[in-house]
Write a structure and sequence with these properties.
There is one protein chain. With about 280 residues, the protein is α/β, with parallel strands linked by helices. It has two domains: about 160 residues, D-Maltodextrin-Binding Protein, domain 2 (3-Layer(aba) Sandwich), CATH 3.40.190.180; about 100 residues, Periplasmic binding protein-like II (D-Maltodextrin-Binding Protein, domain 2, 3-Layer(aba) Sandwich), CATH 3.40.190. Strands 1, 2, 3, 4, 5, 13 and 14 form a seven-stranded mixed beta sheet that branches. A five-stranded mixed beta sheet has the order 9-8-10-7-11. It has a two-stranded antiparallel sheet with strand order 6-12. Helix 1 packs across helix 8, helix 1 crosses helix 9 and helix 3 packs across helix 4.
Length: about 280
């Protein structure tokens, strides 16, 4: 069961990166952040490379115009954004909201998964044990998405609960490990994103689980661009390339890896609502 932030995962190791658009040997940096869950690095590296080559071909850039830096840690992502000032960034919604103003980020495209461009987060516990989040105060909460507790507090819980002070947080790199710990009584609850929750039906537990909290709909995040480091034409070219990605034989590898049906223009209305909610939590 993979973490549901699609369109991400390339092993860091591509070095000749510059933050300016290049029409020659130098490469444009794309920072790729995947806080939380793991991914097979070999599969992800090949898929990401395929995506970049498709983007170059469809957008009519020279080969090897783009290269990426990847991290699975939110703290390292913050450092990469500060150091590289990338023209484009593939991030979680939380990191986008956190760095939107400083890096002039504007959303371009977002993934569509099982017909939807939004998801709901859920907190699950052993069936019949708790009636809601209030009963989990001081209890052990696990999950991969706890790599970004501020996002969970401001957006998922809409400012009603501060994760670090309300729960005993137990972040995990793998959702299956957190769920096994829940089944064994080592955790009181686990917070899951949409894809992770959808995968519960394929798992077997000694103790059935149920959702004790369900968030409002939250948009899936994809690609954002630095509006000051790119032109409208460059953003349009990149967005157009990504919208054709899943129909391309090579690009389809990436889409299949993360269960993405297509990439579509970002829903500005929903994202603006998230920006307002984020700002209210300051």
């Amino acid at each position: 069961m993979t973490r549901g932030i699609p369109f991400i995962a390339l092993l860091a190791g591509l070095s000749a990166l510059v933050p300016a658009f290049a029409e020659g040997p130098a490469r444009t940096a794309i920072v790729v952040c995947y806080p939380g869950g793991p991914v097979n690095e070999n599969d992800a590296t090949a898929a990401m490379a395929s995506m970049l080559r498709v983007v170059e071909r469809v957008g009519k850039w020279p080969a090897d115009s783009f290269a990426s830096l990847f991290t699975a840690k939110a703290t390292e992502c913050r450092s990469l954004l500060a150091q590289q000032n990338p023209a484009f960034a593939i991030t979680s919604l939380g990191l986008f909201l956190e760095h939107r103003a400083a890096h002039h980020l504007v959303p371009l495209v977002q993934p569509r998964i099982k017909g939807a461009t939004t998801e709901r987060y859920r907190v699950v516990a052993q069936k019949g044990k708790f009636k809601g989040l209030d009963e989990l105060k001081g209890r052990a909460l696990g999950g991969t998405v706890l790599e970004e507790p501020e996002f969970i507090g401001r957006i998922v819980f809409a400012g009603h609960y501060e994760p670090a002070s309300f729960f005993l947080l137990k972040p995990s790199r793998q959702p299956i490990r957190a769920l096994r710990a829940l089944d064994g009584g080592e955790l009181d609850a686990v917070i899951l994103n949409g894809q992770q929750f959808a995968g519960l039906g394929s798992l077997e537990f000694k103790n059935p689980v149920e959702a004790v909290f369900t968030s409002d709909e939250i948009p899936l995040m994809g690609l954002a661009a630095d509006s000051e480091a790119t032109t409208a034409d460059q953003r349009a070219r990149f967005a157009k390339a990504l919208q054709g990605l899943c129909a391309d034989p090579e690009g389809k590898k990436l889409c299949d890896l993360f269960g993405v049906e297509a990439f579509v223009p970002a829903d500005e209305r929903r994202i603006q609502a998230m920006i307002r909610l984020w700002n209210e939590g300051k």
